[in-house]
Structure formats: structure tokens, C-alpha cells
Design goal:
By secondary structure, the chain is an all-alpha fold. The chain has one domain. It is 86% helix and 0% strand. The radius of gyration is 17 Å and the shape is globular.
Length: 160
């Protein structure tokens, strides 16, 4: 369900974030990024609680009674979705500011962390959940750092 938030969030936030980035308004950019992070943290907390409490029932409802997934596993996946939303949103800001190479660094960092988790965690289900969650979180944090690290001059030079 939270993935349905991506397109409306992009439509609402992308113009404001790119305008702040292109204008060099660092205060507005930091405020918007802080609010995005706070909103996604709230979403992650709600998703964790809902996934933990109602997740097993929802899995059974959607996939049938033969499919059982404990609440803790659903909760990890739900938090991973919130981090993935953050990753998609910040990389779209980089795309809109014509910083495609930085988008690649953001996604690559998430992939590297995900691969490390996949290699180190022995339990199949847990490693998939943690790879998704930690990889998405890493990519989101790296993307956020890249957006906040951009200077107006560099953004404008890349557009010209």
C-alpha cells in the first residue's frame, strides 16, 4: 500500500525540491528534506506496527491460508518500503537536476549494501528482508547527502 504514495509524493515534492536546489535556497532545501525524512520515519513506524500486528492476517487474506509470514517479517518489509520510497524520491530530485551520475552512486551504494547483507545473513527470508531494508536505507541516505551536497553553481553548470 505505501508504494501507492510514490507518484503523488513525487508530484507534490519534486517541483519544490528541484526549485530549491536550482535556486540555491539551502534553507528551504534542508527544510523540505528534513520534512521528507520525518514523514517517511512516521510512515515507517506506522508500517512497522501495522505489519507486525496485522501482517500475518493480511498475508493469509491475500495469498490464502497456506501462506504464513510472521508479523516481524512483514514489519521489516513494510519499513523497507518506506525507505525505498525515500530512495525513489531523492533520486528523482537528482534526475530532475540533471545529476544522473549521482543517481547511479545512490543506487549503487544500496545495491552494494544489499549484496553484502545477502552474503552474510544465513536465513533466506531474513537476508532478503534486511537486504531490501538496509540497501534501500543506504541508497536513500546517500541520495539525500548528494542532494544536500549539491551547490547551485554545479547544478546550473550541468544544465547549461
Amino acid at each position: 500500500m505505501p508504494l501507492f504514495l510514490v507518484v503523488p509524493l513525487q508530484s507534490a515534492l519534486l517541483p519544490a525540491l528541484t526549485a530549491a536546489l536550482h535556486s540555491g535556497d539551502r534553507t528551504t532545501l534542508h527544510r523540505l528534506m528534513r520534512n521528507l525524512a520525518l514523514g517517511l520515519a512516521v510512515l515507517a513506524a506506522l508500517a512497522f506496527g501495522l505489519g507486525y500486528l496485522a501482517g500475518p492476517w493480511l498475508v493469509g487474506l491475500v495469498f490464502g491460508p497456506n501462506y504464513v509470514l510472521p508479523g516481524a517479517h512483514v514489519a521489516l518489509l513494510a519499513v523497507g518500503v518506506a525507505a525505498y520510497i525515500g530512495l525513489v524520491l531523492v533520486t528523482q530530485v537528482l534526475v530532475a537536476s540533471v545529476r544522473h551520475r549521482l543517481v547511479a552512486w545512490s543506487w549503487l551504494s544500496g545495491l552494494v549494501v544489499g549484496a553484502i547483507v545477502l552474503a552474510l545473513v544465513p536465513d533466506l527470508l531474513l537476508r532478503a528482508e534486511l537486504a531490501f531494508l538496509l540497501g534501500s536505507t543506504t541508497g536513500w541516505l546517500v541520495g539525500t547527502a548528494l542532494v544536500l551536497g549539491e551547490r547551485r553553481e554545479r547544478v546550473l553548470q550541468s544544465v547549461a
